Amino acid sequence: MSTVPLENKKNLLPDVADDATQGRPTMQRRVKQRLTSRTATAAAVIIAVIWTIPTFGLLISSFRPEDNIKGNGWWNVITDRQFTLENYADVLSPGGSQSPNLLSYFVNSLAIVVPGTIFTLVLGAMAAYMFAWGRFKGKDSLFIFVFALQIVPLQMALIPLLQLFTQVLKFGDFQLLPSGTYAQLWVAHTIFGLPLAIFLLHNFIAEIPGEVIEAARVDGAGHSTIFWRIIVPLATPALASFGIFQFLWLWNDLLVALVFSGGGADVAPITQRLAELQGSRGGEWQRLTAGAFVSIIVPLAVFFGLQRYFVRGLLAGGLKG
Amino acid sequence: MEDIAEKGLQVVVGLAVFAAIIGLIMLLVDRAPKSGREKVQIAGFLAPALVLLAVGLVYPALQTSYLSLTDRNGEFVGLDNFVWMFTQPEALVTLRNTVIWVVLVPLLASSIGLAYAVFIDRARGEKALKALVFMPMAISFVGAGVIWRFVYAYKGPEQDQIGLFNQILVWFGQEPKQFLLDAPENTLFLIAVMIWIQTGFAMVVLSAAIKGIPTEIVEAARLDGASAWQQFRNVTIPTIRGSLIVVVTTITIGTLKVFDIVRTMTAGQYETSVVANEMYTQAFRAGEPGRGAALALVLFLMVLPVVVYNARLLRKQKEIR
Prior knowledge:
The complex is a heterodimer.
Chain A lengths: L8 H9 L2 H4 L2 H10 L2 H25 L3 H6 L14 H7 L9 H32 L5 H10 L6 H14 L1 E2 L2 E2 L7 H23 L4 H9 L4 H12 L1 H17 L2 H6 L9 H11 L4 H21 L1 H11 L4
Antiparallel strand pairs in A: 1-2
Helix pairs in contact in A: 1-17, 4-16, 6-16, 7-10, 7-13, 7-15, 8-10, 10-13, 13-17, 15-16
Chain B lengths: L1 H30 L5 H31 L12 H8 L1 H33 L4 H9 L6 H11 L12 H8 L14 H26 L3 H9 L4 H12 L1 H16 L3 H6 L9 H11 L3 H32 L1
């Protein structure tokens, strides 16, 4: 939503990733050591355990045989160590219509999220570049207007946008964004992601030293050359941060999917399928636990693998939703 | 496999079309006649994003505002939908719940996040502790819904419990409880899920702010003999006030728009609905787009003051700097 006001933005990232302690002056390390207290550690560990147990219980359960999951609590694994991969095989396999068939929905999620992220990044960066370096009348007011669009909850746009896709952008039998394909989701996600993308990327691109761009201009480079040869390479860190953020946001989305996907195995993402399974088979814990884990494995991998970019994106952009 | 190939093809076509459009724009702006080239280039870079925003966000938002004044047949009914919202018992429950959410989630998530940030600042193994509490941020609300429904799972008193909370009740000699069914406290158990997710966000931002406090100030307070609590109240809190406000307002905005948790855990039944969920139910399930639009508008009006406050605060801070 907005930039977090931090006094020392430069130090932010290393601090968060906690590898700055190695490089810090000894004075600071001494302070840190003296401040380390057992009570604080104990309190922190207790909270961390409470926060982790629900996910941990789900993970353990997803490997237990069906009868065990339904029969007693997952903490019984201490005495009864039976594990199986059957739940995962069951939820992933493309069985009949009764099967969760999650592999198919997993592919849909990827097919929605990857283009959705790329489109937002490219269009957002192009607009951000002009807002930062273009010279035209009304630039500032237009930029503030785009920034202000973040206020509009996407709920405000859903009903008319669906009508637009299905009724207005239809010429005879030709639908510009055909139902039953990913196209509507790509476009909807791109639209909803653009205000934040333009705002964040603008902040970064505006910081690029003007001399670099001036020099290119003097050499006769047009905007498209400057954009692709100079801006995009220099803005890669910001693009990566926002890209990861957008990726996770799209992967975890449910609302936009419910409205635009139609719900079938040919388009709907895994979150939508999982929500459906909860409704129709609320007691099938062997499927729900394994299914939930299949759906959160990608965001978790992104999170643990790219934590520092993720954190940086978060600190720069706040929450979206 | 055939299925996956088909989906892959769709993605490739989508990306190719997008690349072709962008390539065409770049080609056109480079070939523009010399005299007006600058203008054409600016327009070419801005147009895709601005057209999408105008068609996909601005127009729909206006359209939704109008829709809120119509009934299910599209006829103009004035403020009837708003009268419905503020008089009908089931709609009033929705509003009441939203107020409870928006009071409790920012307050508790920020407090716990702040306490945790302070604890880990003095704890060993900071990086791991941070990752554990932050992890729920990466998990989708749908996934979190499954995780917590499992924690709340209910079995009759004569059976073994599979949900952790009911097992704890049983260990303490209590009757197991239908956590998600018994109104009005079931709303609190849904709120717990949101707090579980948002605490990590508060913690990461506040932790970064705490680390930005100059060591000298902390040292000075220590030398003056300030106790840990005094340091926290008189040094930490005032210094990170800006970040604290941003965290609270950001979580407030996210909470107002909360949809997925309610949708997947109770679908808004048992008196747990909130505005964002009711909007979806009315517009896309009950065939009442007018009511849905009215709810979306109310949501917008609730978010608006928070965002404006946030933006003004940020501007003030920029001026000070």
